[in-house]
Design a protein that fits this description.
This protein is of the alpha/beta class and 514 residues long. The protein is 34% helix and 21% strand. Belongs to the methyltransferase superfamily.
Length: 514
């Protein structure tokens, strides 16, 4: 695809990789602010996220013992690229990490140690990174408000989708989870900046990237040339604002004498005393993270107010897939330029929309047998087009994606015409039933085998009904071979993503469409 978004993205990645070869610790040669970034990712796809970080930022990642987290070091100027990673849900800058923290057996002593820890932590550089990240979000907000005045963005979305529907969050095997603070004081009126979905799309990508790079260089220079406003615990001259904060504690392990609530409360009290910030549970400026996994303790400052997986879907269905999980599934099958990628059970279109945004040199086809699902997916595609047009209407070229209503067991596609099949199969809980899956799964695998190219075709399938899938796969073993299994957590359910490879065997043809 000469001159295509694919090649432009690869060139941008290569440039970023050349700039980002920094390890953890202070900036090399004392010239540049660096940060260790922590990222939460869909459980099971930690290695996928690490590979994306290496590819796009040129930084090696360390996968945490606590599932669903990775850590990597980057220069502060790379923050815009960090926010454009497709595989991460939430980001935070690491203040300090303790790989073997020794907790006291007595509850009061253990909590007192956490309080005393606050004064010993190196807050200065992480708070500079937080300030830089905040200033970038404000610039993005201004640009977004300006772009929203274009005629294309004023069109109302089509009616017929459930907007702001259920959000299926990964629930790790945490003993308990708490979002608590030392105390809550009445909050004054304050406008907080909303997080921006900064995942790059096709239209206007280069121009926005260049603007962000210029902005971040200016901010880095300003940050290194002045003191840290947030870290000093005092406001600058003539500035009356006092920062508001909360502490969020995530704890896993059965050998702790305290709860997450107690850890967040006491640690938050020490943070408030150290910085003289105001505690506020909802209208906060700074979110301090205290992650405790057995004897591993990580203190960080959140860089995202809302999960980055909320980037594509505006019309939700009963089982909308997270965009980050969709990206992990797509990456698993290694799409190549000109590949034809099909999602035969697309639901709200999370997988094909993510695919069209990240792999525009492939052609994506989505379909579902439910007309309401097809309508929601079409509305989500329209939202993506409007987002691209609002960035730069002169370069918005549409997306390589079509959607159709069809029967999964009788697809209107030529035999051997498809390179990749990626889909989220019915779990038999919210849609369908486990009993119906015993007939549906074998029929689906047979039809997918028919449309896929023998020898090179592959399929990536997500399901929680593992017993039924294993039985169905054994019945079609002559056309599909299982190459890899990734165990994932989907809305608290233990599910699996299967990578299948098409054999050279000829699949049974049900009927001809041509």
């Amino acid at each position: 695809c000469p001159g295509s978004p694919c090649l432009r993205r690869q060139a941008a990645m290569a440039e970023a990789a050349g700039d980002a070869g920094l390890g953890p610790g202070p900036a090399q040669e004392g010239a540049e602010l660096a940060a260790v970034i922590g990222a939460t990712v869909p459980t099971g796809f930690e290695q996928t996220a690490a590979e994306e970080v290496q590819e796009k930022l040129g930084s090696a990642s360390r996968i945490s013992r606590d599932r669903g987290k990775i850590y990597f070091a980057v220069p502060a100027r790379s923050l815009p690229q960090v926010h454009r990673l497709r595989s991460v849900d939430n980001l935070f800058v690491v203040v300090e990490e303790f790989k073997d923290y020794q907790f006291k057996e007595n509850k009061e002593d253990a909590l007192k140690d956490l309080e005393d820890l606050v004064k010993k932590l190196p807050w200065t550089d992480p708070l500079k990174v937080w300030e830089l990240n905040n200033s970038l979000k404000k610039k993005k907000t201004k640009r977004k408000k300006h772009n929203l005045q274009s005629p294309a963005s004023k069109e109302k979305p089509n009616d017929g989708g459930e907007e702001g529907g259920p959000d299926h969050k990964d629930t790790n095997d945490l003993e308990d989870y708490a979002q608590n603070i030392a105390c809550v004081e009445p909050a004054g009126s304050q406008d907080t900046e909303k997080p921006q979905g900064v995942a790059s799309q096709n239209g206007g990508e280069e121009e926005e990237e260049d603007n962000e790079q210029l902005d971040v260089r200016d901010e880095v220079q300003a940050s290194s040339g002045s003191g840290t406003k947030a870290g000093d615990g005092q406001t600058a001259e003539g500035e009356a604002k006092v920062l508001k904060f909360r502490v969020t504690c995530n704890r896993a392990g059965d050998k702790h004498s305290f709860t997450s609530n107690e850890a967040a409360r006491d640690f938050g009290g020490a943070v408030q005393e150290h910085f003289q910030w105001k505690a506020d549970m909802t209208n906060f400026d700074v979110e301090v993270l205290l992650n405790i996994h057995n004897n591993e303790v990580v203190v960080g400052i959140a860089l995202t107010e809302e999960s980055l997986h909320r980037r594509n879907i505006t019309h939700f269905g009963p089982t909308t897939l997270r965009s980050t999980l969709a990206y992990g599934m797509l990456r698993l099958c290694d799409p190549q330029p000109t590949d034809i990628i099909v999602d035969p059970m697309c639901g709200t279109g999370a997988i094909p929309i993510e695919g069209a945004a990240e792999w525009p040199c492939c052609y994506h086809i989505a379909g579902d047998n439910n007309p309401q699902a097809v309508k929601r997916a079409a509305n989500n595609i329209c939202s993506l087009l409007r987002k691209n047009e609002s960035k730069d209407s002169s370069t918005a070229l549409g997306v390589p994606l079509d959607i159709i209503q069809w029967d999964i067991c009788n697809l209107p596609l030529r035999t051997g015409s498809v390179d990749i099949v990626v889909t989220d199969m019915p779990f038999g809980k919210r849609i369908g039933s486990k009993k119906k899956n015993w007939d549906l799964y074998p029929a689906c695998l047979m039809e997918m085998g028919r449309i896929c190219t023998p020898g090179t075709g592959r399929a990536v399938l997500l399901t929680q009904d593992k017993k039924c899938f294993a039985k169905a796969l054994s019945r079609v073993g002559h056309i599909w071979r299982r190459a890899q299994t990734v165990w994932v957590n989907v809305g608290g359910l233990h599910a699996a993503v299967y990578l299948l490879r098409r054999t050279w065997e000829r699949a049974e043809e049900r009927r001809s469409f041509w």
